[in-house]
What does this fold into?
Amino acid sequence: MNNKFSDTKKYKKGKTISQIWQADDSTELECPIYKEAFSAGFPSPATDYIENTLDLNKFLIQHPSATFFVRVEGDSMINAGIRSGDILIVDRAIQPEEHKIVIAVINEELTIKRIKIIKKKIYLEPDNPDFNLIEVTPEMDFRIWGVVTYVIHKT
It folds into this structure.
């Protein structure tokens, strides 16, 4: 993954995002995918056949030229299943709307929050009760970089 966001250093003030990478649609990663689903309960006899291969880039990335990855730092979205150290797949081609989790820039600081609209006002909502709702005001330098489509983390 090549980092095509060379100007992102000015956005590293906060502790929400620690790294940013641009998606690269020239790389293929095909892994075997089994024909049958695996049981999460009592183990069943192993099935030794593979149906096909799965290219994770094609499966996870809908718009390669508009997609980037970020590494999360902090725990403001912990109740949404987003933990510090996770990697998010973010798509700039998806329209941000209420309840979507987005990467936003507020006064040159990147943050990961859920969009909330109350009485025609836009808010950025954390998924952790230890953090406050952020009202987006006209005085703020505010932009949405993209919508989070997937969260990747170790179990």
